[in-house]
Amino acid sequence: MTVHIGVIGAGMIGQDHIRRLTEVITGATVTAVTDIDQARATEVATRVGATALPTGSDLIHSPDVDAVLVTSWGPTHAEHVLNAIAVGKPVFCEKPLATTAEDCLRIVEAERAHGRRLVQVGFMRRFDVGYRQMKDVLTSGAIGTPLIVHCAHRNPTVPDSYVSAMAAQDTAVHEIDVLRWLLDDEISSVQVITPRATGKRFGHLKDPQIMLFETANGVRIDLEVFVNCQYGYDIQCETVGEDGLVRLPDPAAVGIRTAGRHGTAVLQDWKGRFGDAFDTEFGEWVAAVTAGAEPTGPSSWDGYAATVITDAAVQSLESGGEVITVDMKPRPVLYGATS
Amino acid sequence: MTVHIGVIGAGMIGQDHIRRLTEVITGATVTAVTDIDQARATEVATRVGATALPTGSDLIHSPDVDAVLVTSWGPTHAEHVLNAIAVGKPVFCEKPLATTAEDCLRIVEAERAHGRRLVQVGFMRRFDVGYRQMKDVLTSGAIGTPLIVHCAHRNPTVPDSYVSAMAAQDTAVHEIDVLRWLLDDEISSVQVITPRATGKRFGHLKDPQIMLFETANGVRIDLEVFVNCQYGYDIQCETVGEDGLVRLPDPAAVGIRTAGRHGTAVLQDWKGRFGDAFDTEFGEWVAAVTAGAEPTGPSSWDGYAATVITDAAVQSLESGGEVITVDMKPRPVLYGATS
Amino acid sequence: MTVHIGVIGAGMIGQDHIRRLTEVITGATVTAVTDIDQARATEVATRVGATALPTGSDLIHSPDVDAVLVTSWGPTHAEHVLNAIAVGKPVFCEKPLATTAEDCLRIVEAERAHGRRLVQVGFMRRFDVGYRQMKDVLTSGAIGTPLIVHCAHRNPTVPDSYVSAMAAQDTAVHEIDVLRWLLDDEISSVQVITPRATGKRFGHLKDPQIMLFETANGVRIDLEVFVNCQYGYDIQCETVGEDGLVRLPDPAAVGIRTAGRHGTAVLQDWKGRFGDAFDTEFGEWVAAVTAGAEPTGPSSWDGYAATVITDAAVQSLESGGEVITVDMKPRPVLYGATS
Amino acid sequence: MTVHIGVIGAGMIGQDHIRRLTEVITGATVTAVTDIDQARATEVATRVGATALPTGSDLIHSPDVDAVLVTSWGPTHAEHVLNAIAVGKPVFCEKPLATTAEDCLRIVEAERAHGRRLVQVGFMRRFDVGYRQMKDVLTSGAIGTPLIVHCAHRNPTVPDSYVSAMAAQDTAVHEIDVLRWLLDDEISSVQVITPRATGKRFGHLKDPQIMLFETANGVRIDLEVFVNCQYGYDIQCETVGEDGLVRLPDPAAVGIRTAGRHGTAVLQDWKGRFGDAFDTEFGEWVAAVTAGAEPTGPSSWDGYAATVITDAAVQSLESGGEVITVDMKPRPVLYGATS
């Protein structure tokens, strides 16, 4: 049984996911593609033997589409996701679920009214082997109750279009989601402080930033976001508990000794770091859709929470570093007890 | 376009490869299964929507089989591979290609007569990310001309059925294949020496063993084979060149600090260590078959070489540690210049 | 030429330094000892062939004392150091230089009036090989201008007598000194935040604490102080600069693989971690005294700065986490340009 | 109480040990110096306030010499050590104890006749923290009975005067001594095999070499000696036992991430690697002499054994790789049960 997937948005990320669905994992086929650029939709559709459709709505209603993948421009996400819920089809929406908390809430409410989960949001870190090992260690109790998490999220460089608020919205949002899941806890406040800025950035950008989070259970998280660190793409996470700590490994790479140095290569982008996680993410999603089961990945509630928390982080940044309380609605029963 | 694969041998390894072809990678489907145990063939075939056929020959000749996977009992490999060559179908044969050097040579000769490569032998290490990084480093010249390779191949335990000769035939054979490929060089002599045996083995077994290889270019390889090392499954490889060295990484795993120790888990079997390599191996094979291209993995010549070299290792072991010269036929042009 | 040292305070730390001066390093001898407990002074003095004297003042004025080591109870430090300055003798004072900023300033002023440096304060981390390597890397420019420092200071447990303010005064004070020196920068504000407390502490204690420092140059420092971390004594420090980062190594220790784990032992106290640094500290101090040169280690100004900054940290802790500006006097020329 | 030491041989290594005795460790003073170059003896003696004496014999008989340090040219060692034994003075002899097995045996016999140990031979690795940790692990039984040891001894380069036999005599001799001690076992045979030689050596030199040792208990040791490895000074040792393995750590050094690489510096010579071991070696020797106790370091029997084993290694090298049985006399009771 093969899941027929319709893809809304055939840009770079959409094409990469189409490649994943058609060339890497098994159990899925792409049957329909749409894009605001109709020529691009046609070209991509033709490449994989799919049909190009004029609009997202056409695609969602197509009888040849079992499940919908939304990889279009962020501001259009909410409409497509709501349409998919309206027709009761599973929908995988790349982050963000929506660009405003209000729109996220509309999706949550629509899904709640539908009565079962249809939406998965594209936060891939929950599918990374290292984070999963860390989650297992936390669950096992081996390091006791978590108290502190130290994180770093570093990119070698970003383009001029990257503005200061994106440190929260586009970058830290991955840690926000994965930490809520790792700790099974909710983030209750945020503070963003700004160290001396690196000279190696576009002048408008505050980089690096340090984000401080507190959770409902009192765990403190410090996250360095440094998107022009020059040396590589580097993701660090260490959780300190009452009895010990657990730390993400660096990616395995051959060690080389030459010319007085012992070392390994550092990755240069997220594709090398999280490529396997993306494969697992889609593999598990397709398996759930095939089984007619609810998706097991990040929910629309998680998408809402991520938006509220990043909004608070941006507010803190813009206020010059105030502590901002995260103001979140009560969680509907559909989304379980905590995160 | 989906490759139709017929599988000969539905035992544990056969079923694992069927799972891989049907549930992990894309582009292939299993259409036929046979096994000496007809009931098992039927059960496995039913599970994946394939047809159970009475014999390997039936399967190889079936019009619904584009390519053949041989995972039956070792002594039957040669016959199936020769049959597949006779009808011009691509065939992936689990190691060993054949149980005798003579049979391997018959396959090489048949393939040479056919005029192009049809056979790939199931040595998966060439598809492991770490070995591929090491190969890239060697090819780049970063450590200069290779001079020495230090290796270890350790299993936690083996069953009573494992006898001393299997240290070469079943265990070291993986290093033999991957080192010939890494070094782009041929092994010319073997010597097996036996340290004090561990008390934690069945009494009939010489374990550990140290195998010393010399290559045509004068590279010296020492390989510790220790199949009852107790602590885990551990693969080590370090190549020392004129300007430096390169070493396989340990598999990435979260680091844990508790109770006065900093540490990581050691894997317990080859599935965790080489699972991704198996996926890549089959993914690339299916891609080559789909493209109508020659396979890029280990050839029947590599299968022949592995058998001749392991025979020499067993001879050295049984002689009490003599240096045995590897006596290999000239390599046909079909198989390229070196390894 | 052997330096004759008089030791004020023959408690545990005093005796350990006496052992260091007499049994480990060369070039010094202990000629006089005093202690509030006269019997202990006599016993310790006898052991090393020194004279027991009734008071610190007697010792400082003794013609058989070239240089003074103050290892008595903290509140007595200022008086002894001022007395030593008054007679122009070099004095090594264990931390703290004095228990109040006012007393520290009196020492600074007395030394300034004397016209050259006589005082060294016992912050030993500047003598640790790892921190010195880090300093060399920073000085070399290899990682560019420093922007952020991440630190952790963990002890397995502390006794009941350890109170919340000591996290700054006794524990973080080491990082405060070494970071001022590493960065060649001054700390300008402090904020202490308190994560969920570990259950494995005495009830009165806030543990762990996270201290956030900002420097005059805008560098941001986060320091986890966790004095009941259970698993070991663990000091971490990572400096992130514009072009890369540099991180303290874990102490070298043999790696062991057994029973499914690869690991190393974690130290259990500061003696193993900083024993060599203490030896170097006293070796370099004795060499400077022998040469008649000013000491090269932490100055009385550094002792003053450490006290002002720890006072600010305690104030932040007690305020519930407010950002406290460090209010430091102008630095006299005697103490150089920055730290 | 200060030990008065007379030093025979004031060349580079002699001067370095004099520095150690006078400037680093406590409890010793150098009172007399002699050298074949009388001017050098005078200069060095003057520098440390010692007396320059015309001959080794004068020095050994001087009433102002409690203990003798022999750091002269190798062929003169035996005579000085025998003279020291004749007058019953403790003597520390740099390796080799003597240049022939016969001379070593004469020393062993003289010491045996004297009735207690006076001689310590300058193998410093037994004093290295890493090897001591490994010894503790072996003694604890944590990895079970040792079966195999993998070693590497690499130098960046050697001068033209270094000839092939020195790979055993000057380089591998350190592993030979430390492994006999680590394993508490005797080496019974040696085989030296020669990989392809590096092009980066003087033409007369066989480099690298692989030395294979077997012990009385059947442990197998492989040792790579590579004295022109270019990249650094690198000492590796891993002992594999029935239940696990223990490995020497790399020296601690700050980790640096810049320009796509994560790495640490590799040491360039033995001074950085074994400087602390030398300090400990002399500290413990001086303590034993002070206490009037027998030395605890390598004995004259260990010096003899090292010479016999390196002779066998050279014989194997010159034979083209034959296995050479080590022919050692029975061990006198004075030297304990095994090594």
From TrEMBL, chains A, B, C, D:
Location of the Gfo/Idh/MocA-like oxidoreductase C-terminal domain: 135-323
Domain Gfo/Idh/MocA-like oxidoreductase N-terminal: residue ranges: 4-123
InterPro entries tied to this protein: Gfo-Idh-MocA_inositol_DH (IPR050424), Gfo/Idh/MocA-like_OxRdtase_C (IPR004104), Gfo/Idh/MocA-like_OxRdtase_N (IPR000683), MI/DCI_dehydrogenase (IPR023794), NAD(P)-bd_dom_sf (IPR036291)
Enzyme Commission identifier(s): 1.1.1.18
Protein keywords: NAD, Oxidoreductase
Keyword Mitochondrion applies: no
Enzyme class: oxidoreductase
Superkingdom of source: Bacteria
GO terms for MF: inositol 2-dehydrogenase (NAD+) activity; nucleotide binding
Record bears the keyword DNA-binding: no
Any Pfam family: GFO_IDH_MocA_C
Chemical reaction(s) catalysed: myo-inositol + NAD(+) = scyllo-inosose + NADH + H(+)
One BP annotation, GO: inositol catabolic process
Subunit structure: Homotetramer.
HAMAP family reported in the protein's UniProt record: IolG
Family designation: Belongs to the Gfo/Idh/MocA family.
Protein's job: Involved in the oxidation of myo-inositol (MI) to 2-keto-myo-inositol (2KMI or 2-inosose).
Name under which the protein is recorded: Inositol 2-dehydrogenase
Naturally occurring in which organism (per UniProt): Streptomyces violaceusniger (strain Tu 4113)
